[in-house]
Design brief:
By secondary structure, the protein is α/β, with parallel strands linked by helices. The chain has helices spanning 8-21, 36-43, 61-65, 83-89, 125-134, 154-158; strands spanning 27-30, 47-50, 70-74, 94-100, 137-145, 165-172.
Length: 174
């Protein structure tokens, strides 16, 4: 698939999960600006609408005013202060969300140069599950995977065994 595209493992697993649940005839609202993965989704036939870089914590008009079949947020919720409100405003009946998992041996990511490239939340799987449940979603499928690195050390070794990413497909509760 996208073996030459960094980070290929995450892209391949995310795309496989997406294809498993969402037909290419659906239009996706992909939270966040256009990025390498949104381009990949378009290349395989999805219609993808990205948000415009607005601060989603303060301006959720793209979520409420755009026409879409599926709401997607790939590694975006960790940057939001209030994903609860975002999930309440989603118009579609299907969502697909992936997040980096909180790792006990690695602190939350915080860029020193980019104020937007910071993780306010790094979820444990049960926290995202609970957030979805409280906002009226039923999880239909989930998957976790590791993110190994080629560096030496205890933390890089642990990354071979401890899941780093979590993805869920959910539908609105009836």
């Amino acid at each position: 698939m996208y073996e030459k595209t960094f980070p290929h493992k995450r892209y391949n697993l995310t795309l496989a999960f997406l294809k498993k649940h969402i037909p290419t005839t659906n239009t996706l609202l992909d939270l966040g600006i256009e990025n390498p993965f949104s381009k990949i989704m378009k290349e395989v036939g999805y219609t993808v609408i990205n948000t415009g870089g607005e601060d989603i914590d303060n301006n959720q008009s793209a979520i409420t005013e755009t026409e879409y079949d599926v709401f997607a947020a790939f590694e975006i919720f960790e940057h939001l202060l209030n994903p609860y409100t975002v999930l309440q405003k989603v118009k579609s009946d299907k969502i697909i969300i992936s997040v980096p998992l909180r790792l006990w041996f690695s602190p939350a990511y915080r860029s020193k140069t980019d104020m937007w490239d910071r993780h306010y939340h790094e979820f444990e799987d049960w926290q995202l599950d609970w957030l979805l449940e409280k906002t009226g979603w039923v999880i239909k499928d989930r998957k976790k995977w590791t993110n190994p690195t080629k560096k030496l050390g205890i933390r890089p070794l642990l990354r071979h065994f401890v899941p780093r990413y979590y993805i869920v497909y959910a539908e609105r509760a009836k």
